[in-house]
Write a structure and sequence with these properties.
The structure is a single chain. The protein is an all-beta fold. It has no helices and eleven strands. β5 and β6 form a beta hairpin. The N and C termini lie far apart (40 Å).
């Protein structure tokens, strides 16, 4: 059974940092592209960042330069390091194997 379990969400002040982790199980992790999405209340789910099986990264314009996605294939872990957080980054953040599997999400709240 495939599982994606996010952790690291919290409430922080604007300008702060958070590190989100996603632990995968039940898959051959290294062969899959991985991604982080987010969904704010009343908004559609949107792509934040993705990392290919070959470690090629891609970011949404609204996080470029502030967020960094990385992966550890040995630990089956994908990490989203978030810096210079803004109130508009407030959302539930989801780990995903695009088009296939989703985690349950972790809440990030950024206070102004």
């Amino acid at each position: 059974q495939v599982r994606l379990v996010e952790s690291g969400g919290a409430s922080v002040q604007a300008g702060g940092s958070l590190r989100l982790s996603c632990a995968a199980s039940g898959i051959t992790f290294s062969v899959y592209d991985m991604a982080w999405y987010r969904q704010a209340p009343g908004n559609q789910r949107e792509l934040v960042a993705r990392i290919s099986s070959h470690n090629i990264t891609d970011y949404a314009d609204f996080v470029t330069g502030r967020f960094t996605i990385s992966r550890d294939n040995a630990k089956k872990l994908v990490v989203l390091q978030m810096r210079s957080l803004k109130p508009e980054d407030t959302a539930v953040y989801y780990c995903s194997i695009p088009m296939m599997y989703w985690g349950q999400g972790t809440q990030v709240t950024v206070a102004s």
